[in-house]
Amino acid sequence: MTHSFYQGILLPKRKVSPLNDLKMQERVAFLHDMSIVGDVLLKVCSCQRINYDILGNTKQFLHAHIFQRYQLEESVKIPKPVGLCDSSYWTNAKYQYEVGKHRKLGKAITKQLNKIANEEK
User: Fold this and answer.
1) 109 alpha carbon, distance to own chain's centre
2) Residues 6+ apart with CB under 8 A from 48
3) How far is Cα 24 from Cα 33, in angstroms, rounded to an integer?
């Protein structure tokens, strides 16, 4: 699978501001789902690690950013937050998700998510 620089965003089933506004069972489900997305990205993107961000500073609704991290990144940036990466990663068209270009990746992610869902039943 090719290396990519884009993030996944996870939203809860109902709109809330901070994680703490969810009932405990909902929190557990949200964080569980976030970790499952990370597991899938590790497998299908062949990345080194996953970074998870739950910020809520700018957008006043709960959401989690899930980022793949690769060994090919500059060594000084690997241990640092994704936000410190070159800003062109956020704006350059070559890093943007495109259905046609990323169809194979999308199918691989969907397949792994379905596999995990079936295993958890």
Assistant:
1) 11
2) 69, 70, 71, 78
3) 14
Confidence of residue 23 (pLDDT cuts 50, 70, 90): very high
Residues present in the chain in total: 121
d(CA 34, CA 57): 19
Distance CA 49, CA 109 (A): 16
What's residue 77's pLDDT? 73
DSSP letter for each residue of 56-69: -SSSSS--EEEEEE
**Could you identify the residue written with the tokens 């998700």?**
97
Alpha helices in 1-121 (DSSP H): 24-45, 88-91, 103-119
Gap between the terminal Cα atoms of the chain: 29
Helix (H) or strand (E) run with residue 49 in it: strand 49-53
pLDDT mean over 93-118: 88
Q: Report the chain's mean pLDDT, rounded to a whole number.
A: 84
Contact 71, 48 (CB under 8 A): yes
